[in-house]
Design a protein that fits this description.
The complex is a heterodimer. By secondary structure, chain A is an all-alpha fold. Chain A has helices at 2-19, 30-40, 44-57, 72-88, 94-134, 140-174, 180-186, 192-204, 210-231. Chain A starts with a helix and ends with a helix. By secondary structure, chain B is mainly alpha-helical. Chain B has 2 domains: 8-182, no CATH class; 210-254. The N and C termini of chain B lie far apart (83 Å). The chains are: A mainly alpha, B mainly alpha. At the A-B interface, helix 2, helix 3, helix 5, helix 6 and helix 7 of A face helix 2, helix 3, helix 5, helix 6 and helix 8 of B.
Chain lengths: 232, 254
Protein backbone atom coordinates (compact mmCIF):
# COMPACT_ATOMS: atom_id res chain seq x y z
CA UNK A 1 0.00 0.00 0.00
CA UNK A 2 2.92 2.40 0.69
CA UNK A 3 3.94 2.59 -2.97
CA UNK A 4 0.34 3.36 -3.91
CA UNK A 5 0.34 6.34 -1.56
CA UNK A 6 3.72 7.44 -2.93
CA UNK A 7 2.34 7.35 -6.46
CA UNK A 8 -0.81 9.18 -5.31
CA UNK A 9 1.38 11.92 -3.77
CA UNK A 10 3.41 12.36 -6.98
CA UNK A 11 0.45 12.33 -9.36
CA UNK A 12 -1.69 14.40 -6.99
CA UNK A 13 1.08 17.00 -6.62
CA UNK A 14 1.38 17.25 -10.41
CA UNK A 15 -2.37 17.64 -10.85
CA UNK A 16 -2.56 20.26 -8.10
CA UNK A 17 0.22 22.25 -9.81
CA UNK A 18 -1.80 22.24 -13.02
CA UNK A 19 -4.84 23.51 -11.12
CA UNK A 20 -3.51 27.02 -10.44
CA UNK A 21 0.24 27.49 -10.57
CA UNK A 22 1.30 25.94 -13.87
CA UNK A 23 -0.05 25.40 -17.38
CA UNK A 24 -3.80 24.83 -16.70
CA UNK A 25 -3.86 21.93 -19.17
CA UNK A 26 -6.88 20.41 -17.36
CA UNK A 27 -4.84 17.58 -15.85
CA UNK A 28 -6.47 18.62 -12.57
CA UNK A 29 -10.03 17.89 -13.74
CA UNK A 30 -11.93 15.31 -11.64
CA UNK A 31 -12.34 12.96 -14.61
CA UNK A 32 -8.54 12.76 -15.02
CA UNK A 33 -7.67 12.76 -11.31
CA UNK A 34 -10.30 10.26 -10.15
CA UNK A 35 -9.39 7.86 -12.98
CA UNK A 36 -5.70 8.14 -12.09
CA UNK A 37 -6.41 7.57 -8.40
CA UNK A 38 -8.65 4.64 -9.26
CA UNK A 39 -5.79 3.12 -11.28
CA UNK A 40 -3.29 3.74 -8.47
CA UNK A 41 -5.55 2.08 -5.89
CA UNK A 42 -6.39 -0.91 -8.06
CA UNK A 43 -9.54 -0.13 -10.10
CA UNK A 44 -9.38 2.50 -12.82
CA UNK A 45 -13.00 1.99 -13.93
CA UNK A 46 -14.33 2.60 -10.40
CA UNK A 47 -12.34 5.82 -10.16
CA UNK A 48 -13.60 6.92 -13.57
CA UNK A 49 -17.22 6.36 -12.50
CA UNK A 50 -16.74 8.86 -9.69
CA UNK A 51 -14.85 11.21 -12.03
CA UNK A 52 -17.69 11.24 -14.59
CA UNK A 53 -20.13 12.58 -11.99
CA UNK A 54 -17.72 14.90 -10.15
CA UNK A 55 -16.43 16.41 -13.41
CA UNK A 56 -19.48 18.60 -13.96
CA UNK A 57 -20.76 19.35 -10.46
CA UNK A 58 -18.48 22.28 -9.61
CA UNK A 59 -18.29 23.83 -13.10
CA UNK A 60 -20.86 26.46 -12.11
CA UNK A 61 -18.27 28.08 -9.81
CA UNK A 62 -15.83 29.91 -12.07
CA UNK A 63 -12.31 30.80 -10.82
CA UNK A 64 -12.87 34.49 -11.56
CA UNK A 65 -10.77 37.22 -9.93
CA UNK A 66 -10.00 36.45 -6.30
CA UNK A 67 -12.80 33.89 -5.86
CA UNK A 68 -11.66 30.33 -5.23
CA UNK A 69 -13.98 27.52 -6.30
CA UNK A 70 -14.31 24.34 -4.19
CA UNK A 71 -11.39 21.95 -4.62
CA UNK A 72 -12.83 19.44 -7.11
CA UNK A 73 -9.32 18.01 -7.63
CA UNK A 74 -9.23 17.02 -3.95
CA UNK A 75 -12.77 15.67 -4.16
CA UNK A 76 -11.59 13.50 -7.08
CA UNK A 77 -8.49 12.29 -5.18
CA UNK A 78 -10.77 11.24 -2.33
CA UNK A 79 -13.52 9.79 -4.53
CA UNK A 80 -11.20 7.92 -6.92
CA UNK A 81 -9.14 6.24 -4.20
CA UNK A 82 -12.21 5.44 -2.07
CA UNK A 83 -14.13 3.98 -5.03
CA UNK A 84 -11.22 1.74 -6.04
CA UNK A 85 -10.80 0.41 -2.49
CA UNK A 86 -14.57 -0.04 -1.99
CA UNK A 87 -14.87 -1.98 -5.26
CA UNK A 88 -12.30 -4.51 -4.08
CA UNK A 89 -13.76 -4.92 -0.57
CA UNK A 90 -17.44 -4.17 0.13
CA UNK A 91 -18.31 -3.54 -3.53
CA UNK A 92 -19.13 -0.27 -5.25
CA UNK A 93 -22.92 -0.49 -5.19
CA UNK A 94 -25.20 2.50 -5.74
CA UNK A 95 -25.36 3.26 -1.99
CA UNK A 96 -21.58 3.37 -1.54
CA UNK A 97 -21.19 5.31 -4.74
CA UNK A 98 -23.69 7.96 -3.56
CA UNK A 99 -22.12 8.14 -0.09
CA UNK A 100 -18.63 8.72 -1.55
CA UNK A 101 -19.86 11.43 -3.91
CA UNK A 102 -21.67 13.24 -1.10
CA UNK A 103 -18.78 12.91 1.37
CA UNK A 104 -16.45 14.43 -1.22
CA UNK A 105 -18.02 17.84 -0.52
CA UNK A 106 -16.23 17.95 2.84
CA UNK A 107 -12.91 17.32 1.11
CA UNK A 108 -13.66 19.94 -1.57
CA UNK A 109 -14.24 22.59 1.09
CA UNK A 110 -11.13 21.55 3.07
CA UNK A 111 -9.06 21.84 -0.14
CA UNK A 112 -10.51 25.29 -0.78
CA UNK A 113 -9.39 26.42 2.70
CA UNK A 114 -5.87 25.09 1.99
CA UNK A 115 -5.83 26.95 -1.34
CA UNK A 116 -6.70 30.19 0.48
CA UNK A 117 -3.87 29.60 2.94
CA UNK A 118 -1.33 29.05 0.12
CA UNK A 119 -2.38 32.28 -1.57
CA UNK A 120 -2.01 34.20 1.68
CA UNK A 121 1.53 32.82 2.20
CA UNK A 122 2.26 33.70 -1.44
CA UNK A 123 1.37 37.29 -0.54
CA UNK A 124 4.27 37.30 1.92
CA UNK A 125 6.56 35.78 -0.74
CA UNK A 126 5.51 38.48 -3.23
CA UNK A 127 6.22 41.25 -0.68
CA UNK A 128 9.67 39.81 0.08
CA UNK A 129 10.34 39.58 -3.66
CA UNK A 130 9.42 43.25 -4.17
CA UNK A 131 11.66 44.28 -1.23
CA UNK A 132 14.60 42.33 -2.67
CA UNK A 133 14.11 43.94 -6.08
CA UNK A 134 14.06 47.34 -4.34
CA UNK A 135 17.48 46.45 -2.91
CA UNK A 136 18.75 45.73 -6.43
CA UNK A 137 18.38 41.95 -6.59
CA UNK A 138 16.69 41.17 -9.91
CA UNK A 139 17.04 37.42 -9.44
CA UNK A 140 14.64 37.65 -6.50
CA UNK A 141 11.81 37.47 -9.04
CA UNK A 142 12.93 34.01 -10.10
CA UNK A 143 13.45 32.91 -6.50
CA UNK A 144 10.03 34.28 -5.53
CA UNK A 145 8.29 32.41 -8.29
CA UNK A 146 10.16 29.21 -7.45
CA UNK A 147 9.11 29.60 -3.80
CA UNK A 148 5.46 30.08 -4.83
CA UNK A 149 5.58 27.07 -7.13
CA UNK A 150 7.20 24.93 -4.44
CA UNK A 151 4.53 25.95 -1.96
CA UNK A 152 1.76 25.04 -4.41
CA UNK A 153 3.46 21.68 -5.18
CA UNK A 154 4.13 20.73 -1.54
CA UNK A 155 0.60 21.68 -0.49
CA UNK A 156 -0.75 19.64 -3.41
CA UNK A 157 1.27 16.60 -2.36
CA UNK A 158 0.19 16.92 1.28
CA UNK A 159 -3.46 17.26 0.21
CA UNK A 160 -3.16 14.29 -2.16
CA UNK A 161 -1.75 12.15 0.69
CA UNK A 162 -4.39 13.34 3.17
CA UNK A 163 -7.38 12.99 0.83
CA UNK A 164 -6.36 9.60 -0.58
CA UNK A 165 -5.73 8.44 3.01
CA UNK A 166 -9.18 9.62 4.06
CA UNK A 167 -10.66 7.91 0.98
CA UNK A 168 -9.04 4.59 1.85
CA UNK A 169 -10.08 4.92 5.51
CA UNK A 170 -13.70 5.72 4.61
CA UNK A 171 -13.94 2.68 2.32
CA UNK A 172 -12.20 0.34 4.74
CA UNK A 173 -13.57 1.55 8.08
CA UNK A 174 -16.62 3.79 7.75
CA UNK A 175 -18.76 2.31 4.97
CA UNK A 176 -18.62 -1.33 6.18
CA UNK A 177 -20.14 -0.18 9.51
CA UNK A 178 -23.43 0.40 7.72
CA UNK A 179 -25.28 -2.65 6.50
CA UNK A 180 -26.13 -3.19 2.82
CA UNK A 181 -29.77 -2.18 3.50
CA UNK A 182 -28.79 1.18 5.04
CA UNK A 183 -26.37 1.87 2.21
CA UNK A 184 -29.08 0.90 -0.26
CA UNK A 185 -31.36 3.59 1.20
CA UNK A 186 -28.65 6.14 0.51
CA UNK A 187 -28.90 5.29 -3.20
CA UNK A 188 -32.25 7.14 -3.38
CA UNK A 189 -30.20 10.33 -3.68
CA UNK A 190 -28.03 9.08 -6.56
CA UNK A 191 -30.10 10.39 -9.51
CA UNK A 192 -29.83 13.94 -8.12
CA UNK A 193 -26.03 14.02 -8.52
CA UNK A 194 -25.58 13.74 -12.31
CA UNK A 195 -28.56 16.06 -12.73
CA UNK A 196 -26.79 18.56 -10.47
CA UNK A 197 -23.76 18.29 -12.80
CA UNK A 198 -25.91 18.82 -15.89
CA UNK A 199 -27.54 21.85 -14.22
CA UNK A 200 -24.07 23.20 -13.47
CA UNK A 201 -23.17 23.18 -17.18
CA UNK A 202 -26.64 24.45 -18.11
CA UNK A 203 -26.36 27.43 -15.78
CA UNK A 204 -22.93 28.50 -17.04
CA UNK A 205 -23.89 28.01 -20.72
CA UNK A 206 -26.67 30.56 -20.80
CA UNK A 207 -27.57 31.89 -24.24
CA UNK A 208 -30.96 32.68 -25.76
CA UNK A 209 -31.30 29.14 -27.10
CA UNK A 210 -29.73 27.20 -24.21
CA UNK A 211 -32.97 26.14 -22.51
CA UNK A 212 -34.54 24.89 -25.75
CA UNK A 213 -31.54 22.89 -26.97
CA UNK A 214 -30.78 21.52 -23.50
CA UNK A 215 -34.24 20.18 -22.73
CA UNK A 216 -34.91 18.93 -26.30
CA UNK A 217 -31.63 16.99 -26.31
CA UNK A 218 -32.35 15.69 -22.82
CA UNK A 219 -35.79 14.41 -23.89
CA UNK A 220 -34.43 12.81 -27.09
CA UNK A 221 -31.53 11.04 -25.34
CA UNK A 222 -33.76 10.02 -22.42
CA UNK A 223 -36.26 8.47 -24.87
CA UNK A 224 -33.50 6.63 -26.74
CA UNK A 225 -31.96 5.33 -23.50
CA UNK A 226 -35.29 4.06 -22.17
CA UNK A 227 -36.24 2.44 -25.50
CA UNK A 228 -32.83 0.79 -25.69
CA UNK A 229 -33.22 -0.57 -22.15
CA UNK A 230 -36.73 -1.86 -22.81
CA UNK A 231 -35.68 -3.56 -26.05
CA UNK A 232 -32.58 -5.15 -24.47
CA UNK B 1 19.09 55.30 -29.54
CA UNK B 2 19.05 52.07 -31.57
CA UNK B 3 16.35 49.46 -30.97
CA UNK B 4 17.79 46.69 -28.70
CA UNK B 5 17.36 43.23 -30.17
CA UNK B 6 15.39 40.42 -28.53
CA UNK B 7 17.29 37.15 -28.94
CA UNK B 8 15.31 34.16 -30.24
CA UNK B 9 16.30 32.27 -27.11
CA UNK B 10 14.84 35.01 -24.90
CA UNK B 11 11.62 35.10 -26.91
CA UNK B 12 11.28 31.32 -26.43
CA UNK B 13 12.00 31.70 -22.72
CA UNK B 14 9.26 34.35 -22.37
CA UNK B 15 6.85 32.05 -24.25
CA UNK B 16 7.63 29.10 -21.97
CA UNK B 17 7.50 31.19 -18.78
CA UNK B 18 3.96 32.45 -19.52
CA UNK B 19 2.73 29.01 -18.41
CA UNK B 20 3.85 29.93 -14.88
CA UNK B 21 1.95 33.24 -14.80
CA UNK B 22 0.07 32.07 -11.68
CA UNK B 23 3.09 30.40 -10.04
CA UNK B 24 3.03 32.84 -7.13
CA UNK B 25 -0.65 33.86 -7.22
CA UNK B 26 -1.47 36.00 -4.20
CA UNK B 27 -4.29 38.25 -3.01
CA UNK B 28 -2.29 41.51 -3.11
CA UNK B 29 -0.57 41.52 -6.50
CA UNK B 30 -2.31 38.42 -7.93
CA UNK B 31 -0.20 37.43 -11.00
CA UNK B 32 2.42 40.18 -10.52
CA UNK B 33 5.39 37.94 -9.65
CA UNK B 34 4.46 35.53 -12.48
CA UNK B 35 4.29 38.35 -15.00
CA UNK B 36 7.63 39.83 -13.91
CA UNK B 37 9.16 36.34 -14.05
CA UNK B 38 7.83 35.73 -17.57
CA UNK B 39 9.07 39.01 -19.04
CA UNK B 40 12.46 38.90 -17.27
CA UNK B 41 14.49 37.28 -20.13
CA UNK B 42 13.35 40.05 -22.49
CA UNK B 43 14.22 42.78 -19.95
CA UNK B 44 17.71 41.28 -19.54
CA UNK B 45 18.21 41.59 -23.31
CA UNK B 46 16.81 45.10 -23.62
CA UNK B 47 18.71 46.53 -20.66
CA UNK B 48 21.86 44.39 -20.98
CA UNK B 49 24.30 47.12 -19.91
CA UNK B 50 21.87 49.30 -17.92
CA UNK B 51 21.22 47.59 -14.56
CA UNK B 52 19.44 50.61 -13.03
CA UNK B 53 16.93 50.77 -15.86
CA UNK B 54 16.52 47.01 -15.79
CA UNK B 55 15.56 47.21 -12.11
CA UNK B 56 13.05 49.97 -12.83
CA UNK B 57 11.55 47.80 -15.58
CA UNK B 58 11.23 44.79 -13.24
CA UNK B 59 9.52 46.98 -10.64
CA UNK B 60 7.07 48.16 -13.30
CA UNK B 61 6.00 44.56 -13.82
CA UNK B 62 5.72 43.78 -10.11
CA UNK B 63 2.68 46.06 -9.97
CA UNK B 64 -0.77 44.46 -9.54
CA UNK B 65 -1.70 42.29 -12.50
CA UNK B 66 -4.57 39.87 -13.03
CA UNK B 67 -6.21 38.46 -16.12
CA UNK B 68 -7.38 35.09 -17.44
CA UNK B 69 -4.07 33.13 -17.62
CA UNK B 70 -4.40 32.05 -21.27
CA UNK B 71 -5.20 35.62 -22.34
CA UNK B 72 -2.14 36.79 -20.43
CA UNK B 73 -0.04 35.60 -23.41
CA UNK B 74 -1.39 38.45 -25.54
CA UNK B 75 -0.61 41.11 -22.93
CA UNK B 76 2.79 39.57 -22.29
CA UNK B 77 3.74 39.65 -25.99
CA UNK B 78 2.58 43.25 -26.38
CA UNK B 79 4.39 44.27 -23.16
CA UNK B 80 7.64 42.80 -24.52
CA UNK B 81 7.25 44.92 -27.64
CA UNK B 82 6.44 48.04 -25.58
CA UNK B 83 9.46 47.45 -23.33
CA UNK B 84 11.59 47.24 -26.46
CA UNK B 85 10.34 50.71 -27.50
CA UNK B 86 10.90 52.09 -24.00
CA UNK B 87 14.45 50.72 -23.95
CA UNK B 88 15.09 52.40 -27.31
CA UNK B 89 13.76 55.70 -25.93
CA UNK B 90 10.80 55.66 -28.32
CA UNK B 91 8.04 55.35 -25.70
CA UNK B 92 7.20 56.55 -22.19
CA UNK B 93 7.58 53.79 -19.53
CA UNK B 94 4.17 54.77 -18.13
CA UNK B 95 2.59 53.60 -21.39
CA UNK B 96 3.27 49.98 -20.38
CA UNK B 97 1.36 50.26 -17.11
CA UNK B 98 -1.51 52.06 -18.83
CA UNK B 99 -1.64 49.40 -21.54
CA UNK B 100 -1.59 46.49 -19.08
CA UNK B 101 -4.19 48.00 -16.77
CA UNK B 102 -6.37 48.95 -19.74
CA UNK B 103 -6.35 45.49 -21.24
CA UNK B 104 -6.19 43.06 -18.29
CA UNK B 105 -9.76 43.71 -17.11
CA UNK B 106 -11.45 43.42 -20.46
CA UNK B 107 -9.31 40.47 -21.59
CA UNK B 108 -9.93 38.82 -18.24
CA UNK B 109 -13.69 39.11 -18.73
CA UNK B 110 -13.51 37.82 -22.34
CA UNK B 111 -11.17 34.99 -21.32
CA UNK B 112 -13.20 33.97 -18.26
CA UNK B 113 -16.35 33.82 -20.34
CA UNK B 114 -14.68 31.87 -23.17
CA UNK B 115 -12.36 29.50 -21.29
CA UNK B 116 -14.18 28.94 -17.98
CA UNK B 117 -17.74 29.59 -19.08
CA UNK B 118 -17.80 27.89 -22.48
CA UNK B 119 -14.75 25.87 -23.56
CA UNK B 120 -14.13 24.04 -20.28
CA UNK B 121 -17.78 23.02 -19.72
CA UNK B 122 -17.98 21.84 -23.33
CA UNK B 123 -14.77 19.78 -23.08
CA UNK B 124 -15.76 18.46 -19.64
CA UNK B 125 -19.19 17.23 -20.62
CA UNK B 126 -17.86 15.72 -23.87
CA UNK B 127 -15.18 13.93 -21.84
CA UNK B 128 -17.70 12.74 -19.25
CA UNK B 129 -20.00 11.34 -21.94
CA UNK B 130 -17.19 9.53 -23.78
CA UNK B 131 -15.83 8.20 -20.48
CA UNK B 132 -19.04 6.16 -20.24
CA UNK B 133 -17.64 4.18 -23.22
CA UNK B 134 -14.08 4.04 -21.89
CA UNK B 135 -12.37 6.20 -19.23
CA UNK B 136 -9.27 6.83 -21.34
CA UNK B 137 -11.38 7.91 -24.32
CA UNK B 138 -13.13 10.45 -22.08
CA UNK B 139 -9.86 11.81 -20.72
CA UNK B 140 -8.36 12.05 -24.22
CA UNK B 141 -11.45 13.92 -25.48
CA UNK B 142 -11.41 16.35 -22.54
CA UNK B 143 -7.70 17.14 -22.90
CA UNK B 144 -7.76 17.32 -26.71
CA UNK B 145 -10.90 19.48 -26.98
CA UNK B 146 -9.69 21.94 -24.35
CA UNK B 147 -5.99 22.13 -25.13
CA UNK B 148 -6.39 22.17 -28.92
CA UNK B 149 -8.07 25.56 -28.61
CA UNK B 150 -6.26 26.71 -25.44
CA UNK B 151 -2.73 26.21 -26.76
CA UNK B 152 -3.58 27.60 -30.21
CA UNK B 153 -5.03 30.78 -28.70
CA UNK B 154 -2.04 31.15 -26.39
CA UNK B 155 0.37 30.78 -29.34
CA UNK B 156 -1.53 33.10 -31.67
CA UNK B 157 -2.19 35.63 -28.90
CA UNK B 158 1.49 35.78 -27.97
CA UNK B 159 2.53 36.14 -31.63
CA UNK B 160 -0.05 38.91 -32.16
CA UNK B 161 1.12 40.66 -29.00
CA UNK B 162 4.71 40.51 -30.24
CA UNK B 163 3.60 42.58 -33.24
CA UNK B 164 2.87 45.37 -30.77
CA UNK B 165 -0.25 46.74 -29.06
CA UNK B 166 -1.83 47.54 -32.45
CA UNK B 167 -1.32 43.92 -33.57
CA UNK B 168 -2.80 42.67 -30.30
CA UNK B 169 -5.97 44.73 -30.69
CA UNK B 170 -6.28 43.73 -34.37
CA UNK B 171 -5.95 40.04 -33.50
CA UNK B 172 -8.57 40.35 -30.78
CA UNK B 173 -11.05 41.71 -33.32
CA UNK B 174 -10.25 38.96 -35.84
CA UNK B 175 -10.40 36.19 -33.22
CA UNK B 176 -14.10 37.02 -32.58
CA UNK B 177 -14.05 35.28 -29.22
CA UNK B 178 -17.59 36.44 -28.43
CA UNK B 179 -18.96 34.40 -31.36
CA UNK B 180 -16.83 31.39 -30.41
CA UNK B 181 -18.05 31.69 -26.81
CA UNK B 182 -21.68 31.60 -27.94
CA UNK B 183 -21.08 28.54 -30.17
CA UNK B 184 -19.31 26.57 -27.47
CA UNK B 185 -21.92 27.43 -24.85
CA UNK B 186 -24.60 26.08 -27.16
CA UNK B 187 -22.59 22.92 -27.80
CA UNK B 188 -22.02 22.51 -24.06
CA UNK B 189 -25.78 22.84 -23.47
CA UNK B 190 -26.53 20.17 -26.09
CA UNK B 191 -23.97 17.78 -24.59
CA UNK B 192 -25.17 18.50 -21.05
CA UNK B 193 -28.73 17.73 -22.18
CA UNK B 194 -27.49 14.39 -23.53
CA UNK B 195 -25.64 13.73 -20.25
CA UNK B 196 -28.78 14.48 -18.21
CA UNK B 197 -30.86 12.30 -20.56
CA UNK B 198 -28.50 9.31 -20.28
CA UNK B 199 -28.39 9.40 -16.47
CA UNK B 200 -32.11 10.10 -16.01
CA UNK B 201 -32.88 7.17 -18.34
CA UNK B 202 -30.49 4.92 -16.41
CA UNK B 203 -31.34 5.79 -12.83
CA UNK B 204 -34.95 6.95 -12.79
CA UNK B 205 -36.64 4.38 -15.04
CA UNK B 206 -36.49 0.99 -13.31
CA UNK B 207 -39.51 -0.56 -15.06
CA UNK B 208 -43.10 0.55 -15.61
CA UNK B 209 -44.63 1.81 -18.82
CA UNK B 210 -44.66 4.97 -20.88
CA UNK B 211 -46.48 7.11 -18.23
CA UNK B 212 -43.84 6.20 -15.64
CA UNK B 213 -41.04 7.06 -18.08
CA UNK B 214 -42.68 10.39 -18.96
CA UNK B 215 -43.11 11.20 -15.29
CA UNK B 216 -39.44 10.40 -14.69
CA UNK B 217 -38.39 12.68 -17.54
CA UNK B 218 -40.47 15.55 -16.18
CA UNK B 219 -39.10 14.99 -12.68
CA UNK B 220 -35.53 15.02 -13.99
CA UNK B 221 -36.15 18.19 -16.05
CA UNK B 222 -37.71 19.87 -13.00
CA UNK B 223 -34.71 18.90 -10.86
CA UNK B 224 -32.27 20.37 -13.42
CA UNK B 225 -34.34 23.54 -13.59
CA UNK B 226 -34.47 23.83 -9.80
CA UNK B 227 -30.69 23.36 -9.47
CA UNK B 228 -30.07 25.93 -12.23
CA UNK B 229 -32.33 28.44 -10.45
CA UNK B 230 -30.44 27.82 -7.20
CA UNK B 231 -27.10 28.40 -8.99
CA UNK B 232 -28.42 31.67 -10.39
CA UNK B 233 -29.35 32.71 -6.85
CA UNK B 234 -25.68 32.19 -5.88
CA UNK B 235 -26.27 28.92 -4.04
CA UNK B 236 -23.05 26.94 -4.48
CA UNK B 237 -22.85 23.26 -5.54
CA UNK B 238 -21.20 22.56 -2.17
CA UNK B 239 -24.26 23.86 -0.33
CA UNK B 240 -26.58 21.66 -2.39
CA UNK B 241 -24.33 18.63 -1.86
CA UNK B 242 -24.14 19.38 1.87
CA UNK B 243 -27.93 19.49 2.02
CA UNK B 244 -28.14 16.14 0.18
CA UNK B 245 -25.54 14.71 2.57
CA UNK B 246 -27.66 15.89 5.50
CA UNK B 247 -30.73 14.21 3.95
CA UNK B 248 -28.63 11.06 3.47
CA UNK B 249 -27.59 11.05 7.12
CA UNK B 250 -31.26 11.44 8.14
CA UNK B 251 -32.11 8.43 5.95
CA UNK B 252 -29.36 6.38 7.67
CA UNK B 253 -30.59 7.55 11.09
CA UNK B 254 -34.08 6.31 10.27
Amino acid sequence: MAWRFLLAILLGGLCYLDRTAACQLMLHRPLVVATLMGAVFGNMAAGAQVGVVLELIYLARLPVGASIPPDDTGAAVFGGSAAAIASSSIGLDAGNFTALLLLSVVVAEAGKAADRFVRKVNGRIARLTAESVDRGDMQAVEHGLLAGLTLFAVTGMVLALAFSGVGVAVSKELLPRFGPASRGNFAILLPALPLLGAASVYSCSRTERTAAVFFLTMAAVFGSTVLFRWSA
Amino acid sequence: MTMPALATRSRSAVWRRQFLLQGCWNYEGMQNVGFAYAILPALRDFYANRPEEALKAVKRHLEFFNTQPAMGALILGASVRLEERVAAGEADPRAIGTFKVGLMGSLGAIGDSFFWGALRPMASVAGALLALLHPLLGIAALLFLYNGVHLTLRRRGFAAGMEGPEGAVGWLKRAALNVRTEDRKLLAAILAGAYAGVFAGRFLVQGGGVPHALGSLLLAAAAVHLFAVLFRKAVSPSEILSFLLFVGVLILWR
